[in-house]
Amino acid sequence: MADETRLKRYTTLASAVDMLVNERLALLDPSKWKDTNDTHFLEAFADCVKAKGIYAACFTQAAETYHHWQVFAGDNEGVCVEFDKENLLESLVDQRNYEWDDMKYRTLGQLRSRRRINAFELPFLKRKGFSDEKEFRLLYYDRSRSQKPVHLVPIKRIWIKRIIINPWLNDALFESMRTALKSIPGSGNVSVIQTSLINNTEWKDACEKVAELQIVKRPLSRSVR
Q1: Rounded CA Rg of the chain
Q2: How far is the C-alpha of 60 from the C-alpha of 135, rounded, in Å?
Q3: Is residue 203 over pLDDT 90?
Q4: Span 94-108, mean pLDDT?
Q5: Average pLDDT over residues 172-184
Q6: The predicted structure's pLDDT at residue 75
Q7: Class of residue 165 by CB neighbours under 10 A (exposed 0-12, middle 13-18, buried 19+)
Q8: Would you call 210 helix, strand, or coil by DSSP?
């Protein structure tokens, strides 16, 4: 079940280490994103507000899915960092040029039917096909300085509630990674676990229970639909 008090950022191990060591969150230049529709809307927003630089970080509030891991953290360096949502956003309330919101997913027909779109909606609109991601986006725009690769947001280490390691890492490397992360000064209380999404003992045990019943007949109800 999703926990809406937390924001989950699927990212790399290096990024997680930087968050813990330097107490900062990197918002990135979206111009190289694979979804060019997304990039176009962000660039249009930047034009509307006369911004020279625009930066974003994408989170989710959804329960984990294989899609999240595969697309956003799909190798042995992938991790999911869980932030305390309230503390992170409260730190930015009085800061200028930050925007954040849940993404609003719309069909092409819904977008066509709109006569006008508020400029501040643009960074938070996405096509309906992405709706399962349940994305939450944090945005910063800069009217005075030209685009650079990253914008760094100060955070507090205590806001990081949990780090989840990808499901592909073997047990020995996971233990080494866990030890290394928790040895970072001030990080001893951060929970570090490995997801069991694709290797879950209880799920496998359920299969054994079925085998023990020696069920050999097909279910009575079968449908062609």
Answers
A1: 21
A2: 4
A3: no
A4: 96
A5: 94
A6: 80
A7: buried
A8: helix
CA torsion 63-64-65-69 (nearest 10°) is 150
Query: Collapsing DSSP states into helix, strand and coil, what is residue 215?
Result: coil
Q: Is 134 left (phi over 0), alpha (psi -120 to 50) or beta?
A: left
Of 58, 105, 61, nearest in space to 85 by CA: 61
Predicted TM-score (pTM) of the model is: 0.87
CA distances from 68 to 7, 35, 75, 132 (A): 13, 15, 12, 10
Q: What are 163's two structure tokens?
A: 């780090």
Residues 6+ apart with CB under 8 A from 202: none
**Three-state secondary structure string covering 18-73:** HHHHHCEEEEECHHHCCCHHHHHHHHHHHHHCCCCEEEEEEEECCCCCHHHHHHHC
Q: β-pairing, 24-28 with 150-154? A: antiparallel
| Tokens 């932030």 belong to residue | 83
Longest dimension (CA), the chain: 71
What is each CA distance from 42 to 54, 110, 116, 166, 202, in whole angstroms?
8, 19, 17, 30, 44
What's the chain's length in residues? 225
CA separation (Å) from 174 to 8, 23, 33?
20, 23, 29
Q: By CB neighbour count within 10 A (0-12 exposed, 13-18 middle, 19+ buried), where does 43 fall? A: middle
Residue 185 pLDDT greater than 80, yes or no: yes
| Beta strands 78-84 and 6-12, pairing class | antiparallel
Reply yes or no on whether the pLDDT at 225 is more than 80.
Answer: no
pLDDT in tens, 117-143: 999 999 999 999 999 899 999 999 999
Tell the residue number behind the tokens 């020279």, with chain if given: 52
